[in-house]
């Protein structure tokens, strides 16, 4: 009799030291996967090339591993005392986690398991958490947040990190708070499942919770620090209780010195697994594959990413305005776009070269609706954009991708587009646009950081939505201005801007700008 396996997506934003990352990845390979189909969504946010190399090696184990670069190069300072976070880092990570939630929902996973990259798991962690049948549950781990202090769990009962029970309106004296705090800590030392008010870092989230609307978006009228607080408050408001499991505590490599504990942790968890029938399929220490010799975690057929097969893929219409682009990047960008578009609507805004012919030639075999303006409308851009919009609507579009003739997505876009098009609860996707300085670098400076902002490029057309334009002659936008009233999402797929304005070049006085290599 065929057993239906539980489909799980492990998600982890990774900015990590190589020695810690290696142990984390090897820990994932030790997981007991009986009746589990496991995929990965990993975001490479590293500034260490060795860490990025380790992730590439891990990715080579199969197409069940989705890995992409964050495109950021933020400084994250940590030492053997503590870690230093700032608000930008917190909400960057929140965006990463929201991308993973969106992927889990779009591809209909049973569970999303979000885990920080400095944790080492007991092999039975994932299978056990699934077996609890909780919508949101974390596995516990213990940390000395400062040297020479007591170990505390990553869960709490209320507010930002209050680790004692408190009834609504109850006022406690310091002595009672201290008693309840130690009572809470002692309780979590016993194997069990406990309801808590806050959790994070090692959390299993069910499909039901995801569909209910959990997310890491900031709640604007709450000033609590950290994206996990906002996630937990939103979950509680949705009526979803939070739980922590304490049967299989994870090892937290909070400091480099914690690496000395890994060998004992592996030995203890492996020996414990060998003594129980629950863990008979766990790998022994000698059987654990190392990253220098990548192997599949399980049968690769179980990991092939799927999208709904019961209906045809939604149509994707590319639209752009071109004018005298034949000597620039037009052919290059269209060669890339033809890999994934179904149709194109192009306004030739008074070209005097063969731009129109290049469009038809490069997109041969794809329906192209080419409109010629004998007189350019560029001086009144709102008229031009409205014309472009109306011509697109004549083709009965589903998804509209609005790009300029010198904009091209990174190579991984074609392979990762379909989950976006199948996203039933998202109507608009925003992307970061990187101004390339040359073929291999983009510029970053204090006054030149457009790639930190997300802009709308991919829109699902809704017939029943009343679209309203910004009537400004020049700064009207590519789409109607009220599209952000529609459900929207940020995507970490990146867009390259191959050309620059003359005015931008003339404004640059720095002869030695800060250039960052572009990495696919």
Keywords:
520 residues, alpha/beta, Spore Coat Polysaccharide Biosynthesis Protein SpsA, Chain A, eight-stranded mixed β-sheet, 14 helices, elongated
Describe the structure.
With 520 residues, the chain is α/β, with parallel strands linked by helices. It folds into two domains: 6-303, Spore Coat Polysaccharide Biosynthesis Protein SpsA, Chain A, CATH 3.90.550.10; 316-517, Spore Coat Polysaccharide Biosynthesis Protein SpsA, Chain A, CATH 3.90.550.10. Helix content is 26%, strand content 23%. The chain has 14 helices and 22 strands. It has helices at 18-29, 49-59, 87-106, 125-131, 174-188, 207-212, 227-237, 262-274, 330-337, 355-362, 381-393, 413-416, 418-421, 502-506, and strands at 6-14, 36-44, 65-69, 77-78, 83-84, 111-115, 119-120, 136-143, 152-153, 193-196, 202-206, 242-252, 316-322, 343-349, 368-373, 399-402, 407-409, 428-435, 441-443, 454-460, 488-497, 515-517. Strands 1, 2, 3, 6, 7, 8, 9, 10, 11 and 12 form a ten-stranded mixed β-sheet that branches. The protein has an eight-stranded mixed β-sheet with strand order 15-14-13-16-20-18-21-17, sandwiched between helices. α10 (355-362) links the parallel β14 (343-349) and β15. α1 (18-29) runs parallel beside α2 (49-59) and α9 runs parallel beside α10 (355-362). The chain is elongated. It starts with 5 loop residues before the first strand and ends with a strand. Residues 81-85 and 276-306 have low confidence and may be disordered.
